[in-house]
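Example S7 (structure tokens).
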């Protein structure tokens, strides 16, 4: 009995002493199993990661157009990775390249097969007969006037001065057509109709047809595009109420730039149909006009433009009144015209739609060599004039300005021979001159409609009665060109 108790106690002591050791052994086995599972999971994640990186790299290389590289089989990839455990970065780079090459080849295989040029078809898209129609605009110009003229009874009138039909279209990629037909209450005619061939040479454009000539600046514009109600007084006196608008050809050269200054030259050869300058041209001798322009950007907000115009033509037949008998005499005599224009424009680049200031000045002069209408002797008539114009943009819609005109004709005793008068280029009175004062205010209701209120006061010396006019003008446009000055 004592012996059994002794062994039982010994066994109990042994169990108590070895219990932590057995527990520790069980814990070690469990930890080893968990580590093995984590390692396997890590390997799977690493494999998934490499596959994702390889796919993304292949797509990037395909987009960048990089050349594909040779790819190895999955077994070779595994062998390579296992054989190079030391340099793992090189192994990953090789795997990425191989996967990229595989993706590139699969993407190329998915592209459609290339066709030969003979199998290609070209479709014109939206081109149709309707798209070939010219752009057409209708421009209306209405004027209501209250006036007071010395020794004249009429004190008001309202005139639909012009309903202009404007055409514009490209005939081909190099040639553009423009036309203008002014329709008045009592007459309609061709105002302009011409085509321009751009890029005849790298710096040369060619125009042919009927066009307003480049004598200065505003002479080239249409009346609806003026900043005032009418053309300058001196221009109307020297070139006629309609200005220079004749059939012919025009060559426009871009002469290049020197520093901030750009130079242009225009040469126009036209028929001599202007009655103010060429009423005696019966042989159809053309007139030649040269216009030189220098354009300079002073700074980002300011530019200046200087122009010089020269005109030459001839008259060859004269009516001479001798003792009450009118005879026709043939003799060629020249006509010379001279123009000078200057423009200064300030327009802030960050506020150009709301503010600007423009100062423009032009000079017109003409000298006609003639046969005197009273006796047939040789003589000459010289007349000149000009204007200066100050113009402000007050805000997006409101503009204001002031123009001052001056004209001085020649004084000749034979200027008023009955039926052969030379006015307004020459008058009988001594020291003749006239000037005009024109303040105005323009409200642009929209790009399609504008109203102008203008006051004109004209006076002078030995040039007729004084005139005072208050004019309300409305200009509207239906079409893409709006108030096109050309």
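Recovered sequence:
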């Amino acid at each position: 009995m004592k012996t059994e108790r002794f062994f039982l106690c010994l066994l109990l002591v042994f169990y108590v002493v070895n219990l932590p050791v057995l527990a520790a052994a069980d814990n070690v086995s469990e930890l080893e199993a968990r580590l093995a599972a984590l390692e396997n999971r890590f390997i799977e994640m690493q494999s998934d990661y490499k596959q994702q990186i390889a796919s993304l790299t292949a797509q990037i290389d395909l987009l960048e157009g990089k050349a594909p590289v040779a790819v190895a089989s999955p077994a070779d990839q595994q062998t390579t990775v296992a054989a190079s455990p030391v340099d793992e970065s090189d192994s990953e780079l090789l795997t990425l390249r191989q996967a990229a090459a595989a993706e590139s080849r699969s993407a190329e295989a998915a592209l459609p097969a290339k066709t030969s040029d003979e199998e290609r078809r070209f479709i014109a898209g939206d081109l149709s007969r309707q798209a070939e129609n010219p752009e057409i605009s209708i421009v209306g110009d209405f004027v209501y006037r209250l006036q007071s003229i010395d020794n004249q009874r009429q004190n008001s009138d309202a005139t639909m001065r012009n309903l202009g039909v404007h055409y514009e279209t490209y005939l081909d990629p190099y040639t553009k057509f423009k036309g203008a037909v002014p329709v008045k209450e009592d007459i309609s005619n061709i105002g302009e109709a011409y085509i321009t061939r751009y890029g005849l040479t790298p710096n040369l454009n060619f125009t042919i047809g009927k066009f307003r000539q480049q004598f200065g600046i505003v002479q080239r514009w249409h009346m609806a595009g003026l900043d005032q109600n009418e053309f300058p007084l001196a221009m109307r006196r020297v070139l006629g109420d309609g200005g220079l608008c004749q059939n012919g050809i025009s060559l426009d050269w871009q002469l290049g730039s020197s520093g901030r200054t750009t130079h242009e030259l225009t040469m126009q050869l036209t028929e001599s149909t202007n009655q103010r300058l060429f009423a005696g041209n019966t042989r159809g001798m053309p007139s030649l006009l040269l216009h030189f322009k220098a354009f300079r950007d002073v700074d980002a907000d300011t530019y200046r433009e200087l122009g010089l115009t020269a005109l030459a033509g001839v008259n060859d037949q004269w009516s001479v009144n001798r003792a009450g008998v009118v005879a026709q005499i043939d003799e060629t005599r020249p006509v010379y015209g001279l123009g000078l224009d200057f423009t200064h424009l300030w327009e802030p680049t960050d506020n150009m739609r709301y503010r600007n200031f423009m100062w423009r000045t032009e000079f017109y002069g003409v000298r006609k060599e003639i046969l005197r209408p009273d006796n047939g002797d040789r003589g000459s008539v010289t007349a000149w004039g000009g204007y200066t114009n100050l113009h402000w943009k007050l805000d997006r819609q409101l503009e204001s300005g002031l123009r001052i005109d001056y004209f001085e004709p020649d004084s000749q005793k034979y200027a008023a021979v009955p039926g052969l008068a030379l006015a307004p280029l020459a008058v009988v009175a001594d020291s003749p001159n006239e000037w005009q004062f024109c303040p105005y205010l323009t409200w642009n209701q929209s790009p399609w409609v504008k109203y102008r209120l203008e006051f004109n006061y004209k006076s002078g010396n030995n040039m007729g009665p004084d005139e005072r006019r208050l004019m309300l003008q409305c200009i509207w446009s239906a079409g893409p060109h709006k108030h096109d000055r050309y």
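Notes on this example. The chain is about 20% helix and 45% strand.
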